[in-house]
TrEMBL record:
<protein>
    <submittedName>
        <fullName>GNAT family N-acetyltransferase</fullName>
        <ecNumber>2.3.-.-</ecNumber>
    </submittedName>
</protein>
<dbReference type="Pfam" id="PF13302">
    <property type="entry name" value="Acetyltransf_3"/>
</dbReference>
<dbReference type="InterPro" id="IPR000182">
    <property type="entry name" value="GNAT_dom"/>
</dbReference>
<keyword id="KW-0012">Acyltransferase</keyword>
<dbReference type="GO" id="GO:0016746">
    <property type="term" value="F:acyltransferase activity"/>
</dbReference>
<dbReference type="InterPro" id="IPR016181">
    <property type="entry name" value="Acyl_CoA_acyltransferase"/>
</dbReference>
<keyword id="KW-0808">Transferase</keyword>
<dbReference type="InterPro" id="IPR051908">
    <property type="entry name" value="Ribosomal_N-acetyltransferase"/>
</dbReference>
<feature type="domain" description="N-acetyltransferase">
    <location>
        <begin position="6"/>
        <end position="169"/>
    </location>
</feature>
Length: 175
């Protein structure tokens, strides 16, 4: 896949079909992102407040071949003090666009955007220990596997382990 076919853009009101589908359709959310039905009105309220991009995080639309196919997100994570922070990123793609390199390209674009527009030194990502595709995508972007966080996500009736990855600004800049 040509990474030039993938882009990120701000959310518009016309994109709410995507959020609504991910909130009520387990297949659209994906096996590793589905943890029950969500209130889409909360997303609409936040959109009305800040367009889903604020100082503590945001959401952008993943575009592939001109169509909205998913979302990438980031949120601020603090380690003890407000001055000690990093971004935690995530992605959710519609089923037809998974396994084709779209997610890797979108996350690479998000990492570049965050390092280019914020003072972050570190970006983190977590994924289910069974989500090998996401682990490979993060490694291709340059993320380092840091370890396993035991029983941190409740999904499909049981607690799941997550793998933690990180990418530091100097490692990103060297690439």
């Amino acid at each position: 896949m040509d990474e030039a076919e993938v882009a990120l853009r701000p959310v518009t009101a016309d994109d709410f079909w995507l959020f609504e589908r991910q909130a009520v359709d387990p297949e659209a959310a994906g096996r590793f992102n589905w943890s029950g039905f969500r209130d889409v009105r909360a997303t609409r309220r936040r959109f009305d407040d800040d367009g889903l991009v604020g100082p503590d995080g945001g959401v952008l639309i993943v575009v592939h071949d001109g169509a909205a196919v998913g979302t990438v997100s980031w949120s601020r994570t603090e380690y003890g003090m407000p001055a000690w922070w990093c971004w935690t990123i995530g992605i959710a793609l519609l089923p037809d666009h998974r396994g084709r390199g779209v997610g890797t390209a979108a996350q690479r674009l998000l990492v570049g955007y965050l390092f280019d527009t914020t003072a972050a030194q570190r970006i983190e990502a977590y994924t289910d220990t069974e989500n090998l595709a996401e682990q490979h995508a993060l490694a291709r972007i340059g993320f380092a596997r840091e370890g396993v966080l035991r029983s941190t996500q409740f999904r499909a009736g049981r607690w799941r382990d997550l793998v933690m990855y990180s990418l530091l600004r100097p490692d990103h800049d060297a690439r």
